[in-house]
Amino acid sequence: MQSADPAVREMLDEARRRGVETVWDRYAAQLPQCGFGELGVCCRNCMQGPCRVSPFDDGPARGVCGATADTMVARNLVRAIAAGTAAHSGHAKHLAHTLKKSVQGKAPDYPVRDEAKLRAVAARQGLEADGVPAAELAARMAEAALANFSEGEEPLAWTTATVTAGRVQAWEKLGVLPVGIDSIISEIMHRTHLGVDADAVNLLLGGVACAVADYTGCHLGTDLADILFGTPQPVVSEANMGVLKADQVNIALHGHNPVLSEVIVQVARQMEDEAKAAGAAGINLVGVCCTGNEVLMRHGIPPATHSISQELPMLTGALDAMVVDYQCVYPSLVGVAECTGTKIITTMGMARITGATHVDFEEENAAAGARQIIRLAIEAFGARRGRPVQIPQYKSQVVAGFSVEAIVAALSKLDAADPLKPVIDNIVAGNIQGVCLFAGCNNVKVPQDENYLVMARELAARDVLLLATGCGAGAYARHGYLTPEAVGEYAGPGLKAVLTAVGEANGLGGPLPLVLHMGSCVDNSRAVDLAVAVANRLGVDTAQLPVVASAPEFKTEKAVAIGTWAVACGLPTHLGLVPPVLGSATVTGLLTGGIKDLLGGYFIVETDPVKAAEKLFAAIQERRRGLNLATRSW
Amino acid sequence: MPKQVLIRFERCVGCRSCQLACAVAHSEAKSLYGAVLNGEKPRARVFVHQAGEHKAPLNCRHCQDAPCIDACIAGAMHRKADDTVTNIGGEQYCTACWMCVMVCPYGAVRSDAAGTMAVKCDRECKDDQGVPACVRACPTGALVYAEVDAYSAGRRQGVLLQALGGV
To answer: Where is [4Fe-4S] cluster 2 bound in this sequence (chain A) (predicted)?
Structure first.
């Protein structure tokens, strides 16, 4: 099975019929993949290489410079963390610059839409806000945000203000509190250069510091996006390729940053008449990957698909344009588009694809850029009018939009004075055994979505509260797990009672969805906020909570960074694929064992989803024991 | 006794270094950079496949009773003085009838890029120490260039050491 998603399977049949190459074909063509790379024991960091060392003690045990397998594996891993950090924090910096342009009057299409969030973040960050007008406060916010990037004297404001005091102490003791996001990325590149840091343990600590910077960048990204575009509130929509509409101009918004897609959402509403003049019934925006998550969370834009199946909506013949910003956008889209007539529109100067149509998007002229992009889609619709389409008739209902603010608001209907109390009481009573955050991507090496679905069913049945972000949340969206109905189908009695009590208190007449969609991958910071709030309310550290994380189908360097900061936050963190570290017993042992003594969190590598759920459940029980709470067996 | 390219399957990590080296050895430039810069597309005559959980190299066995020689209607396939089998430099040219491809029990004969002649391992790739390119390139020792009896003696030694080494 290539995918658990029937819409994906239908479109894969169509791809085969038409001879269109997809990610699954390219993966097959790559087999066997290099064993050195799989083990992490190849190094291309200098021009005396590339080097690789033998895993069988029957070949070179050191690279040309003398680097051992331990050094190579650790260097490669921390470079991946640095790349992930660069991506997340680049996204956050883009938002900070947008906010700055907004308050300078240079970006009229970007008003501050959520003054309450602006003031809440200002209060948390200790910005002088009393009597300060919103515009002035937003200017200070942009400056304060940008100050996290360059090198300062102190630990980062967005790090220390958003985690428990216990975490700050633990990180300080280990020397993993970064003093600048860009500076730690730069430091990692320095340390992994030929002839700098060759000590695997020291390198990994550097990687943890960089991951803390990644967390900080993610948090900045979430905060600034909320301030500019609004904090998500529960929203009802649909997901999967069945959301495409044959008679409308279908435009997919793909990538990660909402800066462009937010304006497209606004402008599309004004261009309905133009679409109708071209013979369409309207403009139908759909999401792909985390840009899709961003516009789902804030506007209910339905996601069409995620991650590895990103090429397939084009095979319907109904997708007129795919507008991309950056990250996780396959260059192969252009080749598929040549077969289907879809316009692939790149928008960021630093993220172009040969063969795509490029519309250089600038915040200063956002609405005009968005109009130009939508017009290209309308033109493409005109060209495909009358041609048959094959839209898979699969779509699921989705309830998304669970920011921490939304969750707390829902809980306050049960206890307005102490909103977290119902959650804590139910964890203590055992109705909720613990919490699992599902994050990450799809990966072509495993059947799409399958690990997510199996693990959610196993854990929900055992009363584990489920949160999700990124393409993991996308998987749950397409399979109907973001619905109240899924609670009846999969939740254990305790979890079902709690979700029902909260749902009914909020007038839903039923439970909250089985899995709470907290946003894009950057929005993993929201899950930390929730854990930190619960930990602070209990007077414990996040490393003591019965909270675990899982990246069952992770793919990107960003996911490596997030996984590492989940561990740094003290969470037992599951990986559903084997990361490229097995070439070093030292590194493998540290990540899966030794690091627990330092940070509380550690990696659990398990490719079987049932066994993985069992291991996470055991980790939750270990935490419950530590808090003197009643435990259960699997 | 001539040396053979023998395979220790359990050692293959699937890096394809042998294929790259074989292709380069059969390029005009005889170097990776040169072949790439010249836009050459040399083809490897050694193969690495994923077989279930295993990564496995496979190459021409240069069989003593070679079916490809018997089947070659054109009269191109022949045995050289060094005991290796090739379709280059024989009495006739290869006519691309693919009989050799059909009869090879290992699938070790393939087509050239243009589809105009069969290509196979010809051992015209040895370095100045007489070691074939694929063996030289193999980083794990999965490919061994040895006399058969020397190789089997090594295998016996390994087995016995494992079984009796502690006695």
So the answer is: 43, 46, 51, 65
